[in-house]
Amino acid sequence: MSDLLNRRLALLGERANLSLLEQCLHGIERECLRVTDDGHLAQTPHPKALGSALTNEQITTDYSESLLEFITPALADPADTLRSLDKIHRFAYSKLGDEYLWSPSMPCPLPEEKDIPIAYYGTSNIGRLKYVYRKGLALRYGKTMQCIAGIHYNFSLPEKLWPLLRQNEAADVSDRDFQSSSYIALIRNFRRYSWLLMYLFGASPALDAGFLRGRPHQLEQLDPDTLYLPYATSLRMSDLGYQSNAQAGLTPCYNDLTSYTDSLRKAVATPYAPYVEVGTHQNGEWVQLNTNILQIENEYYSNIRPKRVTYTGERPIQALMARGIQYVEVRCLDINPFLPMGIDLTESRFLDAFLLYCGLNDSPQLENNECGNATSNFLTVVKEGRKPGLQLQRQGQAVDMQAWAVELLEKIAPLASLLDQSHGGDAHRQALDAQLAKVRDPSLTPSAQVLAAMAEHQESFAQFSLRQSKVHAEFFRAEPLPAQEQTAFEDAARESLVQQTELEQNEVGDFDVFVGSYQASILAISN
């Protein structure tokens, strides 16, 4: 274990500091498709009873009108975060009629591209901006790719932790800069080790055959309706799930916050020839926000993002540059189709220990070949993670994945113990042991269990997924929310519709001018 990690563990283990780790914050965003009783994409508008997708803080839509997104508040106890997510699911199910929430990450059998509805947010300028952005995504990457769902795990270390570490290490920078550089260091380590999360939590080894729309691929046929790879953990995170030639040259450097924001700023301002050829308008209608590599910074697809809560009208990049990094958003987690919410407390507790390890351990800058290795290790594990004797690259040497995974879990163990010391009990240690069991026995991984369940029931991917969706629907519908909580959700939904109407009625200014000033806002940021 590194000297730095040892010193930090000792400092945080002191009686006066132990309670700090109870103040980490956890938020979850869960995406899921609405589907019909026979497992096809719901073509209905976003249910009005769920409120406005534009202004409801807990229930919105992601890419498609059919792709719901549930958002919890950021809470100190992940058990409370999951309780909050559970309540959102129960409320949603009270308003879904005969529709279901699709259980896995990879989509149900989809209609023709043209029949996948793009999310609509009303007639306000910001609502229209969100809609045109999605039209741009459809144009650039196709609608099918945008129907993949995931779980985003938002995590922050306590604000009081950073000054403590900075003083202890006599770092000659401001608290804010120390905090930002520490989060960037966490992200570098996450890039080094996130292949482990794909092995442990990847749950998309198979997909509906129609998903590829006849494109060439290297997948195998499992049955007439299902494609898969025998050792895959997460086809969702493979190059098959999402590919962008425009973004290929865009690898934001995680050396420091400035180099990261600079690379995104440039991408939002740099024209990309194929998009220029299309233009921003067709037949007088907006089809994309601009003709640059990225329309907005959120278009950059990454496994983890540095984040800060934004003010109204502020762009994510402006918030980061003005006030530094506040938390990280882990974006590579598959939805586990065996869990009603797609994630559980065991996974959350392990993620906390894993992220704490990434954040407190030494994190030298990624040299060029190490950056490439991190990417190729990740892609190897998503396609072949359960393959016996699988080799990854570490410091220019081939290394056995299973041995490296065991070694990493041993290094994370002291972090799990520290969290248990802080919280009482041994829940983090147990979560770690559950992951060790999966490393020793690949049949315990969610990806292996998906294939096993399909084989046992002789089901296609779509049949398995619909069966799980109905099991989960029954779980949520069997126990409705208490009347008081149901009323609170209904009030919030109604209030969000009122807010959207007010926005639309009080809108000032022309949409074209609004888009122009939105684009200019990023160009105006000084270096």
Summarize the structure.
This protein is an alpha+beta fold and 527 residues long.
Structural summary, described in words:
With 527 residues, the protein is of the alpha+beta class. The protein is built from 18 helices and 14 strands. The chain has helices at 3-13, 15-18, 78-95, 125-141, 161-168, 175-193, 195-201, 257-269, 273-278, 316-323, 345-360, 368-384, 401-423, 427-440, 446-457, 461-477, 483-505, 511-523, and strands at residues 25-35, 59-61, 67-71, 100-101, 151-156, 206-208, 220-223, 226-228, 281-282, 285-286, 304-307, 327-333, 391-394, 397-400. The strands form four sheets. Strands 1, 2, 3, 4, 5, 11 and 12 form a seven-stranded antiparallel β-sheet that branches. The protein has a three-stranded antiparallel β-sheet with strand order 6-8-7, with no helix packed on it. The protein has a two-stranded antiparallel sheet with strand order 9-10. α6 packs across α11 (345-360), α11 (345-360) crosses α14 and α13 (401-423) packs antiparallel against α14 (427-440).
Distance from N terminus to C terminus (CA atoms, Å) equals 38 Å
Question: For the residues shown, what is the average pLDDT?
Answer: 95
Broad CATH class: Alpha Beta
Largest sheet: 7 strands, antiparallel
Shape: globular
State the CATH architecture: 2-Layer Sandwich
Percent strand: 5-15%
| Count of discrete domains | 1
Helix % is: 40-55%
Work out the number of β strands: 14
Q: Return the structural class.
A: alpha+beta
Instruction: List the total number of helices.
Output: 18
According to CATH, the fold-level topology is Creatine Kinase, Chain A, domain 2
Poorly predicted ranges (pLDDT <50, ≥5 residues)? none
The radius of gyration is 23 Å
Catalytic activity: L-cysteine + L-glutamate + ATP = gamma-L-glutamyl-L-cysteine + ADP + phosphate + H(+)
Enzyme class: ligase
GO molecular function: ATP binding; glutamate-cysteine ligase activity; metal ion binding
Protein name: Glutamate--cysteine ligase
